[in-house]
Amino acid sequence: MKAEKTEPRQSTAQRIEQALIEEISAGEVSPGQRLDEVSLATRFGASRTPVREALSRLTAQGVLVQGERRGVFVAEYSRKELSQIFEAMHEIEACCARIAAQRLNLLSRSEIEAAQADCVAAAEAGDHVGYLRANEAFHSAIYRATGNPYMAEIASEFHRRTGPFRAKKFGSRKDLIASAESHQALIRDIFSEDSATASKGMRSHMTASFMQALKAN
Amino acid sequence: MKAEKTEPRQSTAQRIEQALIEEISAGEVSPGQRLDEVSLATRFGASRTPVREALSRLTAQGVLVQGERRGVFVAEYSRKELSQIFEAMHEIEACCARIAAQRLNLLSRSEIEAAQADCVAAAEAGDHVGYLRANEAFHSAIYRATGNPYMAEIASEFHRRTGPFRAKKFGSRKDLIASAESHQALIRDIFSEDSATASKGMRSHMTASFMQALKAN
DNA sequence: ACTTTCTAAACTGTATACAAAATACTTTCT
DNA sequence: AGAAAGTATTTTGTATACAGTTTAGAAAGT
Prior knowledge:
Two copies of one chain form a homodimer. Chain A contains ten helices and three strands; from the N terminus they run αβααββααααααα. Chain A is mainly alpha-helical. A three-stranded antiparallel β-sheet of chain A has the order 1-3-2. In chain A, helix 2 crosses helix 3, helix 4 crosses helix 6 and helix 5 (about 105-125) runs antiparallel to helix 6 (about 130-145). The model of chain A is unreliable at about 1-5 (pLDDT under 50). The interface of A and B includes residues 84, 85, 87, 149 and 154 of A.
């Protein structure tokens, strides 16, 4: 493999943004919790400036919300709001599954299968954090299979935004295993290369996901 | 109507962000053009700090793109990329039309009709900028009719992102009038309250929109 | 004890200075 | 003339200071 161009060094602000995204997605910061510029600056060994930039970018992406007069908070949604988000996500994911089913190729199939193998491994090991990452990668592989980076980006954003709520349904090793198993049915539907089957399969998956997240929250 | 809570005063960074969004959406800044912190700071009578914040937020929203090593640019898409964006937008808009058709109520109908009246007025007057605003408001009214702010937000983002490319198809008064007329068919389909009709109508509208944008770019 | 007013502390947004990195331009060498 | 090295300029990211706004807590008044 040819070496890639030299990657620009990640700025402090980017580093902070990434770290916060991961924590929030993993549900490590509770909904409604306020993020404090000054203590984050201390924690990351930086000044307020890059912290402010990271927080501002995350509000622009809807990952965080700005208080009315002050403060930046991890978004906290009512049951109604949560169902609206899942509805939107549900529609996007169904579109992705439909398009992916139409566009499967050797690479995308392999990527989905490899990602699923990682999910299974993490679930068997009872590795909660590892499973969250592997689950993320699994869904990303489906998004990539659409061959449309913009669809993939939208879907990823929703996946990230619902991360904190979905993370709570993975309480035990048994939950992880059940989740990994549900992926198998989904893969079968997508690999059928039939749009309607894929779309329907994803809708079922998302409905189950939502129900479980409701129960756990 | 009861007075709303006092709105927080808009920061300089927010002001700059809004102004840039409008200009970019209206196609006033060419794709590929670099935005320069220093001259923007001069132009807005501010320091680099709020300019950087605005630019950073706009890159986080995908409205602008970061150069590999330096610079922030108005996104420039290849024909292939443009078709991918429109494809994603097409899917989102069709979902919105479908959901809106299922959820119409007196308020949403009125809003759509009022927005269309504004489109017609702007088109008849040959008011290019006014038409862009009215067109934006028309689509926003449809998104709002979904009753799902998250669907609406995604759709609005795509609408905004494709603004520069779509703006170019509104070259003459005749183009504005044709666009406003195409809205009528779309309204009829959505107001049919039939999901499939609404979805199909929106797909037609988006296909025509894309073809026209291709021709004009 | 409760309410109002005042004060101090915390938070927010911005300007400015500084240093490092990237790029453009000029000079020197082959 | 073309390439390499050196220099100057521009751009980027960050730290810090400052001023304005908001909030919390203390003091005074009823």
